[in-house]
Structures are given as structure tokens and as C-alpha cells.
Design brief:
By secondary structure, this protein is an all-alpha fold. The protein has one domain. Helix content is about 80%, strand content about 0%. It has 3 helices and no strands. Helix 1 packs across helix 3.
Length: about 100
């Protein structure tokens, strides 16, 4: 009879131990999943950063070419200030007509 009582005491202890193990395993799996998700997010961010950087090079090159217009090098005369936006627009449109915006090196 005493052996049966010991088994009864041991069974709940085993269940608690098994529950602890399953909780630890679940927590470890969750941590691994979070780490994998974070790594994938970092890779996606790096890819997006590279795409943005490659486009930034082109934009900076066009801005540099537009600055070569003489009207944009000097201070704008006060009589032409109302037309400043239009002047910029025309300069950038003319820049887009240039043949090689990027050097093929």
C-alpha cells in the first residue's frame, strides 16, 4: 500500500517536471524563431538600403550636372525670384536630355 502511495506522489512530480521541460522547449523554440525572424528582417533592411543607395548615386549625379548651368551658379537676381521654380525645372529637364548621365566605367 505504501508503494502505491509513493507512486501517487511521484506521478504529479513527474508531470510537473515534464511540464517544465515542455515550457523550456517552447521558450527555446520561440527564442530561435525570434532570432531567425530578426536575421531575416536585417537581411531585408540591408537589401533595401543597397537599393536606395544605388538610386541615391544617380540622383546626386543629376543634381551635380544641373548645377553646371550658369544661371544656377550665381545668386538669382531679385527680379527672377518669382521664376526660381521654373528655372530649376527647365535646368533639370535639360539635364535629362544629356546623353550619359552615368559613366560606363
Amino acid at each position: 500500500m505504501q508503494a502505491k502511495q509513493e507512486q501517487a506522489v511521484d506521478v504529479p512530480d513527474m508531470l510537473v517536471a515534464m511540464q517544465d521541460i515542455s515550457e523550456e522547449t517552447t521558450e527555446e523554440a520561440a527564442m530561435q524563431n525570434a532570432a531567425v525572424a530578426q536575421e531575416e528582417a536585417m537581411l531585408q533592411d540591408a537589401t533595401q538600403d543597397r537599393r536606395i543607395a544605388s538610386k541615391r548615386v544617380h540622383v546626386e549625379r543629376v543634381i551635380g550636372l544641373a548645377k553646371t548651368f550658369r544661371i544656377l551658379k550665381d545668386e538669382l537676381h531679385h527680379a527672377y525670384v518669382p521664376f526660381g521654380g521654373r528655372i530649376l525645372f527647365v535646368c533639370f529637364v535639360l539635364t535629362n536630355f544629356r546623353p550619359n548621365l552615368m559613366n560606363n566605367a
